[in-house]
TrEMBL record:
<feature type="transmembrane region" description="Helical">
    <location>
        <begin position="284"/>
        <end position="304"/>
    </location>
</feature>
<keyword id="KW-0256">Endoplasmic reticulum</keyword>
<feature type="compositionally biased region" description="Polar residues">
    <location>
        <begin position="1"/>
        <end position="11"/>
    </location>
</feature>
<keyword id="KW-0328">Glycosyltransferase</keyword>
<dbReference type="InterPro" id="IPR005599">
    <property type="entry name" value="GPI_mannosylTrfase"/>
</dbReference>
<feature type="transmembrane region" description="Helical">
    <location>
        <begin position="335"/>
        <end position="354"/>
    </location>
</feature>
<feature type="region of interest" description="Disordered">
    <location>
        <begin position="1"/>
        <end position="23"/>
    </location>
</feature>
<feature type="transmembrane region" description="Helical">
    <location>
        <begin position="380"/>
        <end position="398"/>
    </location>
</feature>
<comment type="similarity">
    <text>Belongs to the glycosyltransferase 22 family.</text>
</comment>
<dbReference type="GO" id="GO:0005789">
    <property type="term" value="C:endoplasmic reticulum membrane"/>
</dbReference>
<dbReference type="GO" id="GO:0006506">
    <property type="term" value="P:GPI anchor biosynthetic process"/>
</dbReference>
<feature type="transmembrane region" description="Helical">
    <location>
        <begin position="152"/>
        <end position="177"/>
    </location>
</feature>
<keyword id="KW-0808">Transferase</keyword>
<keyword id="KW-0472">Membrane</keyword>
<keyword id="KW-0812">Transmembrane</keyword>
<feature type="transmembrane region" description="Helical">
    <location>
        <begin position="311"/>
        <end position="329"/>
    </location>
</feature>
<feature type="transmembrane region" description="Helical">
    <location>
        <begin position="197"/>
        <end position="217"/>
    </location>
</feature>
Length: 528
């Protein structure tokens, strides 16, 4: 990042006078911060070559591909109206642009969505820096940004096309504009609360569970503000109604009927515990495993920063979000992604304190002519964080569970050459990307896993007895040109595949260790 010359700065139109005055002390321009983050996130996007969770493809890109190109699979959630088209529409417009420029070719269709997401991620990084700067100054801001870029889970997940990723960016930008988040010494500029409300409403429209975050911030604002009636009746209700109305109109257009997605989402996930179908965890999982793994080796620095800063507004938000999500049976890492950057702000506070302490000690040693060849505490901390997070980030992004993505990338290129006629996936449902990666309107079939009131799904029955299921399944299929399966099921289906004249054509490494099933070491592609 390029430093400002002579410490000069130009007042940003959204900054208060106090903030603009303090900004002069910052050695970096916001433009340079953003460009640095953008370059890093674009490289980050290109390095992500693994499969993490089906929703990255099936609830975003697959839906967008159907909107843009007329074919793509809609999962049962879209039939039940518990998903809004707002998030996929962003990628659909991007796909349309690629098609208009005649860039909708396999290599571009595979990489472009994550590159688009990298722009939003860079915006999130920038506002993490701005929020940290407003709250604690440049010393904390630069170390908070370092922590954001160095954290393994942010590297692994932030650039994926989850609605959670965009929700995280909107959360960071929104918190920057909310007056209640700031200290009384650094008040937000006039009108910023409206921007904060609009961003909070947009986050909730994209992902209704984002309301967990914004209820906390809204209650905090209601407690601290002196114009409560104006906040509720002039800002909150009108802005929320406009965003909800626009979202409902979009969903009305796409669903071809009036659908209130937030209400359906609430009924399914909270009132009927529908999410429990996908597995449950103990109430303490986020505290003892989930969030602690995400923060990883930054955890002791985060705790130290919370204690030293005594900034309970933000630490309270982290505890509030983790606590409410702990009530739900179904838990996932990405659900609490929006509060991970907030925890990294406290890491920045802790590292800045070490930096300041080392600077004081260094000045004393220079004045007394004492030379010390040992690395400082700050240097040891940085080395420890980088040495523990970089290998983890690269392993999870480049190696672990990459086979399903590699297999679909291969089939996409083969289909473009006319070598693929139809595909059957004999594996757990949604284990691979689908039409959004293949980008070819060929017949494909995967094993259905739509919840069915306790009855085993196709995917369940296949995993219980692969051979019997495959024999029955083949009685009614149109003979596919290709079959994709994991090696763990291939062992049982060798004779079945040979009897139907299939031969192995490619084998892709997938994982070194099992996650939630038997070890799926490789993904195998068979052709007739």
């Amino acid at each position: 990042m390029r430093q400002r010359k002579n410490g000069s700065s130009i007042k940003h139109p959204n900054l208060s006078d106090a903030e603009a005055k303090s900004q002069k002390k910052s050695p970096y321009s916001l433009k340079d911060v953003f460009l640095t983050c953008l370059g890093f996130r674009m490289l980050n996007a290109l390095l992500i070559q693994t499969y993490f969770n089906p929703d990255e493809h099936w609830q975003a890109l697959e839906v967008a591909h159907r909107i843009a190109f007329g074919y793509g699979h809609l999962t049962w959630e879209w039939e039940e109206g518990i998903r809004s088209y707002l998030h996929p529409m962003m990628f659909a417009l991007f796909y349309k642009l690629l098609a208009l420029l005649r860039l909708d070719i396999p290599c571009v269709m595979i990489k472009a969505p994550r590159l688009l997401q990298s722009i939003f991620s860079a915006v999130g990084d920038l506002y993490l820096y701005k929020l940290s700067f407003v709250l604690f100054g440049d010393g904390v801001a630069k170390w908070a940004l370092f922590s954001q870029l160095a954290n393994w889970f942010m590297f692994f997940c932030f650039n994926r096309t989850f609605s959670n990723s965009l929700e995280t960016t909107l959360t960071l930008v929104g918190l920057y504009y909310w007056p209640s988040v700031r200290s009384s010494l650094n008040k937000a500029p006039s009108g910023s609360r409206k921007w904060g409300l609009a961003l909070a409403a947009l986050a909730c429209a994209i992902r209704p569970t984002s309301a967990v975050t914004w209820v906390y911030v809204g209650l905090l604002e209601l407690y601290l503000t002196h114009d409560r009636l104006r906040f509720i009746f002039v800002e909150l209700i009108p802005i929320g109604s406009v965003v909800l109305g626009i979202t409902c109109l979009l969903d009305r257009l796409m669903y071809d009927s009036w659908v209130l997605v937030p209400l359906n989402f609430l009924k399914f996930n909270f009132l009927s515990s529908g999410g429990d179908y996908y597995g449950t965890h103990k109430w303490h999982w986020y505290f003892t495993q989930g969030f602690t793994v995400m923060v990883f080796t930054f955890l002791p620095f985060c705790v130290a920063g919370i204690i030293k800063s005594k900034y309970w507004k933000l630490s309270g938000l982290i505890l509030w979000v983790l606590g409410l999500y702990s009530i739900l049976g179904h838990k996932e890492f990405r659900f609490v992604l929006p509060v991970l950057p907030i925890s990294l702000i406290f890491v920045g506070y802790s590292l800045a304190a070490l930096d300041e302490r080392d600077s004081r000690n260094g000045a004393k040693k220079r004045s007394s002519c004492i030379c010390n060849k040992w690395p400082s505490r700050k240097q040891l901390a940085i080395f420890f964080l980088l040495a523990s997070n970089i290998p983890m980030a690269l392993y999870m992004s480049l190696i672990h569970q990459r086979g399903t993505e590699d297999a679909m990338n291969y089939l996409s290129k083969e289909a473009a050459k006319g070598k693929v006629k139809s595909i059957v996936f004999l594996m757990p449902c949604h284990a691979t990307p689908y039409y959004s990666t293949l980008h070819n309107n060929l017949p494909m079939r995967f094993l259905d896993c739509t919840p069915n009131k306790g009855m085993p799904t196709e995917s369940d029955r296949f995993m219980m007895d692969p051979v019997s299921f495959a024999v029955d399944f083949a009685k009614n299929w149109s003979h596919p040109s290709h079959i994709v399966l994991f090696d763990s099921e291939e062992r049982h289906l060798k004779d079945f595949l040979i009897s139907h004249s299939f031969r192995e054509v490619r084998r892709f490494f997938h994982a070194h260790f099992k996650v939630d099933r038997d070890l799926q070491a490789s993904v195998v592609v068979y052709a007739d």
